[in-house]
Amino acid sequence: MDDLTQYLYEFLMERCMKDLREDAEYNACISAVLQQEEQVRAGLNPEQQSQLDRFIDQILELKLALDAGKVTDGTVVSMIAAGIGYTWAANVIRWG
Hints:
With 96 residues, the chain is an alpha+beta fold. The protein is 60% helix and 15% strand.
């Protein structure tokens, strides 16, 4: 992690998320998500676990697809994400 990334991470964690990190309901949700992830990982072989890690990091996956030539000008890329509670996100990008 470079210095700027580290600084931004610390800023967010200490100044913006301090109250949230101390919230019991939030911590219970995080714990439940981590337990579910562990259960999923327990049924996967090492290669599948590696693929899961890459899938979770959508920006990394997009870069790998670009490097492999799977995304070129005109390609439609769709990303979805779900968090705890009612948090979700989606985007569709026409590349190029």
